[in-house]
Amino acid sequence: MKIGIIGLPSSGKTTIFNALTRGKANTGGFGTSRSTNVGVAHVPDERVNILSGMFKSRKTTFAEVIYVDLPVSASGELFDGEAMGQLQQVDAILLVARAFEDGSVPHLSGTVDYRRDIEKVTFDILFADIALLERRIERINDSLKTLKVADRENAIKSVETLKRIQADLENGTAMRDKALDASEKKAISNTFTLSRLPLLVALNIGEDDLANTKELEQVLSGLLAGKSIGGAAICGKLEAELVGLSPEEEAEMRSGLAAGESGLSRMIKLSYGVLGLSSFLTVGEDETRAWTVNTGTAAPKAAGVIHSDIERGFIRAETVAYDDFVQCGSMAEARNRGQFRQEGRDYVVKDGDIINFLFSV
């Protein structure tokens, strides 16, 4: 999974990036760096640690999320050519919206107002798609004179369809919220639209607002209506400081500050929920590992995440639910209690399934 991080200047998006990836990217320049930062975060999953210990695995591998911290211009331009090229390669957008006050870090608009900033950026996302479709329509219209009669009729229909989609965007309907009919799917099949990407919002709060996290998230939820969209309040500055400590020191500091669950863990849960993802597990002496799939994925497709040959030669899946396995304590006992199952091609993988795929190629 790859997530692109965007945000207006001085929003603290690179600080959030550092907190999520344990990175050390430069946070100077009030958010106007023109460099792209890329980092990897391991998905926190205590199940992996427990299973690795039970199987005495030589290797423990967590699922991973790649975060791409995208540059922003001094004027607040988020979606120039370079950024759009990068965003075509991500699975979701993480918008960092500033809610903290800091006189030493001036806001581009002079005042801090996260509602205004979220509204601006979500409008800019829609506007980027409107402009893209406008260019597409212009190119088709310019080509009409050179087309044969049948091709010209199809091109005119495509223009009409694109204009209909464009009108919906102008009325505030993101592509992720739009149910496309057959003609719309065909007209836009080769066009990347920014607003079809799931949208996550990290409300970057100050330490003095930690106690108000739940209330702020309720307000945020009211601002983020629609499909594949959600948000969480995180103190980026504090999170970036805490991830630099040892696990023991971090736990002690979180307890003392009432900082709660780590920002990474909260953002991962939000990401999995908004993107509709879940994890299955493979175990053994060699390696215990978590794998990420779309919720509702059938067993053969999940096997393909490990290797295409396993999907191609899929025979069946041997599986036991994580909670059941831990209660049993071993595979042998899981078999004795009837918790160990043989599943076929139609089986839908569930979050926390421990699976061994049988295949032949």
Structure description:
There is one protein chain. By secondary structure, the protein is α/β, with parallel strands linked by helices. It has 3 domains: 2-109 and 197-275, P-loop containing nucleotide triphosphate hydrolases (Rossmann fold), CATH 3.40.50; 123-195, Obg-related GTPase Ych/YyaF, coiled-coil domain (DNA polymerase, domain 1, Orthogonal Bundle), CATH 1.10.150.300; 296-359, Ubiquitin-like (UB roll). The protein is 42% helix and 20% strand. It is built from 14 helices and 12 strands. It has helices at residues 13-21, 46-55, 81-87, 114-143, 149-170, 182-188, 213-223, 236-242, 247-257, 263-275, 299-306, 308-312, 322-328, 331-336; strands at 2-7, 37-42, 59-61, 64-69, 92-98, 199-204, 229-234, 277-282, 287-294, 314-321, 341-343, 353-359. The strands form 3 sheets. It has a 6-stranded mixed beta sheet with strand order 2-4-1-5-6-7, with helices on both faces. Strands 3-9-8 form a 3-stranded mixed beta sheet, with helices on both faces. A hairpin with a 4-residue loop joins strand 8 and strand 9 (287-294). Helix 1 (13-21) runs parallel beside helix 8 and helix 4 packs antiparallel against helix 5. The longest helix is centred in the middle third of the chain and has 30 residues, at 114-143. The chain is flat, with a radius of gyration of 24 Å.
Tally of strands: 12
Any guess at the CATH architecture of the largest domain?
3-Layer(aba) Sandwich
- The global form is flat
The overall average pLDDT, rounded, is 91
CATH topology of the largest domain: Rossmann fold
User: Rg, please?
Assistant: 24 Å
- CATH homologous superfamily designation of the largest domain: P-loop containing nucleotide triphosphate hydrolases
Q: Please tally the helical runs, counting DSSP H or I stretches of 4 or more residues.
A: 14
What is the CATH class name of the largest domain?
Alpha Beta
The chain-level structural class is alpha/beta
Query: What is the element string, with H for helices and E for strands?
Result: EHEHEEHEHHHEHEHHHEEHHEHHEE
Poorly predicted ranges: none
Question: Alpha-carbon distance between the termini?
Answer: 28 Å
Sheet of most strands: 6 strands, mixed
Count of all domains = 3
Widest sheet, order of strands: 2-4-1-5-6-7
- Helix amount: 40-55%
